[in-house]
Design a protein that fits this description.
Rossmann fold; globular
């Protein structure tokens, strides 16, 4: 069997198409999202939308394949709001590792995890990426949608520092660009959290750069800081046009990375099954 793939999505391909793909290519993208609240105006699928949108569009441009998306992440701090689903961090690590090992077993030697749960999923995903690299010798990377094009996204957006937070300008713009039918802008709000001397976790907004301390956030504490809406950002400035520009910037940077690693030789020293 030969010729152009019928889809970039692994689950939509027949196995001979995948066999043909592996004769000349070895890259696979793995989108990892989350199911958690995003205010009154956005659905719980926002983080998975980040991951699947970036993965699909980059894959189409670069000619690579994408594994089925994982809709669950490490979202424990959102569990005070109805509907959220969280994995334990060790479960997320295990899921990411098992998916990666399965693909490596078939001969995919370059694995790129796409993290749509902007930096929240990073700790368990980084453990999985390191374990996969050490166990198999595969080339492994994580493309985080909050970090991959953060300066470009900051230039596209107009909100003040803190406006790119949870369910804020950039996340609302993404959904307006890809799923406008699921957005209710009549319920969008601006909630800029109080700026602390030490920012928490990984910085996704260059306007809030400064000394950073990582502090775990409990569900009750997040609820108190974000109630009644669950928003911590400025959704009012979001537009479809900004969403399109944000997606384009992310895709552009990921494709550049794919082109960078494509010619690299990778020696798989082991291709174990995840048993």
């Amino acid at each position: 069997m030969s010729g152009k793939m019928s889809s970039v999505w692994l689950q939509e391909l027949k196995w001979p198409e995948i066999e043909d793909y592996l004769e000349s290519e070895s890259i696979a993208l793995i989108p990892i999202g989350a199911t958690e609240q995003h205010g009154f105006h956005l659905p719980l699928m926002v983080d998975t939308c980040w991951a699947t949108t970036l993965a699909e569009e980059a894959a189409m441009e670069a000619g690579v394949v994408v594994a089925p998306p994982v809709h669950f992440g490490w979202s424990v701090h959102h569990m005070s709001y109805p509907g959220g689903i969280t994995l334990r961090p060790e479960t997320l690590t295990a899921v990411c590792l098992d998916i990666g090992m399965s693909l490596v077993h078939h001969g995919f030697s370059k694995i790129i995890y796409i993290n749509g749960n902007r930096n929240a999923n990073l700790p368990p995903m980084e453990i999985a990426a390191n374990q996969l690299r050490l166990k198999t010798g595969a080339k492994v990377a994580i493309a985080d949608v909050g970090l991959l094009a953060k300066h470009e996204i900051r230039d596209i957006c107009e909100s003040e520092p803190g406006g790119l937070g949870h369910a804020g300008e950039s996340e609302t713009a993404l959904m307006l660009a890809r799923h406008p039918d699921l957005v209710d802008m009549s319920k969008a709000v601006k909630v800029i959290p109080h700026r602390k001397q030490f920012a928490g976790n990984v910085i996704i907004d260059p306007l809030t750069d400064g000394p950073s301390i990582s502090e775990p956030n409990l569900p009750d504490a997040f609820l108190k800081a974000s109630e009644p809406t669950g928003v911590m950002g400025d959704a009012l400035l979001a537009t479809k046009e900004k969403g399109d520009l944000i997606i384009a910037a992310l895709v552009r940077n990921l494709v550049k990375y794919i082109d960078q690693i494509r010619p690299q030789d990778v020696d798989l020293h082991e291709r174990p099954l995840p048993v």
